[in-house]
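Quick one, T. Sequence first:
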Amino acid sequence: MTFTLFQPNKKAKSAEVNANFAFVSGDRLIAIDPYIGGAKGTFEIGDLTATTNGSLAGDLNARTGSFLNVHNSSGTLINRVSYDDLLNLQSATETQEGTVRLSTQSQADNGTDDSTALTPLKFKNSTFTNRKLLITSTASSDSTIDFTGLSSDYSRYVIEFNSIKMGNDGVRIDLRMSGNNGASYDSGTSDYDWICQSPNRWRYESNDSKIELVDDSATSRTLSNAAGDYANGTIEIANPTLSSSKCVIFFQMFHKSASGNVTFNIGSGARKNAKAINAIRLLPSAGVFSSGTFKLYGIK
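Structure tokens:
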């Protein structure tokens, strides 16, 4: 009889064993008077799983206890080898074919391992990805949208907002910052200064309790909440966690105005005093964010 030894899911050589008689004892196959490459004797294969159509499958999990014992015709143990040795398994390298396992998320994040394979999902979630989605917040009649946990892991953060439906007509979106991870947000009358441009107008405030992302000096510039009208835009925050820095933001927004025309608002704002910032709050000047999606990205 002939038995073929192999391990599923591994790229490995097979080994054929011709034996006059063989039987299974526990988790071992015992073959009497086998011929292996011209040698005659007895062998045992450990950690077996199943026998199908004359094929004997080794342990799918490749346990370290897997082995092959080779005896001579007198019953003396002359060799004991592992499955990997028997089947000539070897690790893959740049120049050598072989087996390779997948990276763990920790290995992908650390970036020092050079012996495992990186999958697209682990790459996407890796800290080495230049731009990483950190938080998604979906508005549902919310009076504020907060992003906490900003850290020095990223030099910049970007907030993208899409299809924002305002609860009230003719309003703006404001921004405030926090240095205690959102326990409170700075709202003193001279905490911020900002500048905003809309069509045919610049507006600057040197002392304010918030950064206004929309010029609300006329309805032709404010946000509409009419059917089908939404606000979209981005906010970029540079080095917010530096305690020696006056945190600066850049923003741009495009939308339909309360007077019905298409318009934009673009500008910049900053804290007036240096402070490490680890949380950002967005809020409408009145009413709520009825719907829409806000996403926070970290950028290396």
